[in-house]
Structure formats: structure tokens, C-alpha cells
Write a structure and sequence with these properties.
The protein is α+β, with helices and mostly antiparallel strands and 94 residues long. It contains four helices and four strands; from the N terminus they run αββααββα.
């Protein structure tokens, strides 16, 4: 349930935010990213930090890897979760 809630929030923000970070990673077709702290992702989606870390993120990484890329970037308090959605692969998956 937690993974579904987080995925819904990610897709909502992805489709409704005009500005996304631009960075190309080798092997990943999309070069647009959303970046927030873990706490910000958890609060915005209505999950606790523990639910995000122990339930939602592992399941999304395991089951949504074809269309969703999740990377932890940065160090210390500036560490952010960068998330990218490949819309073409998502359409094929659905």
C-alpha cells in the first residue's frame, strides 16, 4: 500500500511540475529529475519516514525498475532522492 501511495504521488508531481532538474545518466533514456529529501517525499505523500524507507522505496525499486529510476545523491544534510520517470516505458508497462 505504501509503495502505491508513493508511486501515485511521484506520478502526480511528475506530470504537474513544469520545472525539473536536467541531468543525463548513462543507460537511462530520460534526462529530467525530481529531487527532494526523504523526509519531504514522505511528508508530501502522507507516509512516515520509516514507511518510506522500509516499505515504499524497496518495493518501487524492485517492481517499477522498468520505468522508474530512484537515486540517492549528495552527502549529509544536502542528500536528496532523485526520481525520474520514463513515460514511454510506463505506457508500455501499463
Amino acid at each position: 500500500m505504501a509503495a502505491g501511495i508513493l508511486l501515485h504521488h511521484i506520478l502526480y508531481v511528475w506530470r504537474n511540475r513544469d520545472y525539473k532538474l536536467q541531468r543525463k545518466l548513462p543507460g537511462w533514456p530520460c534526462d529530467q529529475w525530481l529531487a527532494h529529501s526523504r523526509d519531504a517525499w514522505a511528508t508530501a505523500s502522507g507516509l512516515s519516514s520509516t514507511e518510506l524507507a522500509r516499505r515504499a522505496l524497496p518495493r518501487l525499486r524492485n517492481y517499477c525498475g522498468e520505468f522508474l529510476m530512484i537515486r540517492a545523491m549528495g552527502h549529509g544534510p544536502a542528500k536528496r532522492l532523485w526520481i525520474s520517470v520514463d513515460e514511454i516505458a510506463l505506457r508500455e508497462y501499463v
